[in-house]
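WARN no homologs supplied; continuing
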Amino acid sequence: MSLFVFDEPSGQLSLSGHPKDTGFPATSAQLIELIEQSAYADFDILHANVGKLFNPSNDQAKDSLLVAKAADAQISVRIDDNNMLAEARITTARGGKMINMDQAKATLAEAGVVRGINQSALDKFLGQQFELPSGATYNAIVAHGQRAKDGSDARFVRLCMTAQDRILSPQEKEGGKVDMRDLGAIITVSPGTPLMKRIPATLGEAGFTVFGDVLQPKPGRDLELEVFDGTKLDPSDSNLLIADAKGVPVALPRGIRVDDVLCYENIDVTTGHVEFDGSVIVSGDIKDGMRVKASGDITVIGFVESATLECEGAITIVLGAIGRKRVENEAFSCEIKAKRTISIGYAQYCNIHSDQDLFIDRQALHCDLSARRLIRVGKGETPRGKIIGGHILDALRIETGELGAPSGTKTRISIAQNWHTLREKQMQFVEFEKILSAKAEAVRQAKKKAAKAAPSSKRDAYLQKLVNSEKQLDLHLARNRRNVVLVKQKINALLKTSRVKVNELMHPGVELKIARDCKMFSRIYPPHLLKLDEGKITQQFVTG
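OK structure emitted
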């Protein structure tokens, strides 16, 4: 006769008789050992019932013969805080039934999961019940939401070369050598020539949570082509910009301008100073003392020697710009200023300012430099040019190979100097808020006082005037608070992005100023990054 009786519908395992009647097993430990060695080893043993069977008792009829119970597998589902992931957890069966696919899907449905269920992951998750021991607990992600994919902004694809592109592609001579002064024919366009194509913005793709909620994407900014002088939109395609006149194309961020072009072999005393409403291209040099001003771009294939250049577009000087040696506080003999990017092969004793970026291929020696964004000395992704002496008056970022000179030549670097202007604006907004708050409080007090006066048409008109004033003050306060937040964001962004990167060596004699913090360096440093951290200039050295 079997020692155990198993009732399959209830999953209960009982003894066929009381141990005191059969004399076996003799102890609770022996009974537990028998259960663990039987086919019911995975069952949950009811230790309380087992203990009572072997305790002295005058009424053994009250003792339960139930000693173990089969436990089915359990499944639960947890949803992350963003409703983007559903994680299932299973505790494997202890002698009971496993979780099947229908039960798993029903549990997901009860938890509200209706989208993003990964059938393959769920199959694998349920299959682990066959591999893990009874009573084991394990988790797995079985459903994923999908984040909304934001739309892309409108893009602008240039369809024609410019004079600057041609400079980067000089003509090849016999034997494979390149003549930097031979750029071939001047690039011009004729009416109808395609100049730029607009790729419209996209709306993006909607996403969803595991609950099935739709996540709306952020559409891209739908910027339009800008029509500048000498261009127009194609009548048959509003996304295509074409030339409307003959001239030299000048690339702009959202369009192309077609300029008249004035070409010189050299600019010197024989040509006189040049002021031109268009672009100027010089295949040779601009000589000492000459002035060139243009509404478009200025392109010089040779040298600029102690001359003054100013334009509304970009300036490109292939070989370099050189001024006369000067003493401290003396005016520069060579000055270069552009609203757009300036690219120069080499600069010495020059004052150069760009409202965008400034690129110098080889070296800047005793120059005053400034740019709204980046100053880069050297070519490629890891510039290895040199900045020796002089003063960088302002920029957002600087990248060079070497900074300073082994002799300790004084080299002053100032970046993020717009911080002072932004900080002044911030203080002005804070003070203005105090004034507005004081006025608003005065109006409120006046309202309270007027409300206590005897009713009359004059009082009512006065109260209405106070109400209108209060509304106006509230509007000004809200606008001013927005300005305070905006300026604070600009200051934080400025300090976060401002940095100096040295790719080879920084020599003694460098004086660095970032925003309002200054630091002098008196020894040689290997490649590193200088930036502001909690208001102080810090150095981060390149490892490896």
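Helices lie at 19-22, 28-36, 47-53, 101-110, 119-127, 163-167, 418-451, 457-497.
OK
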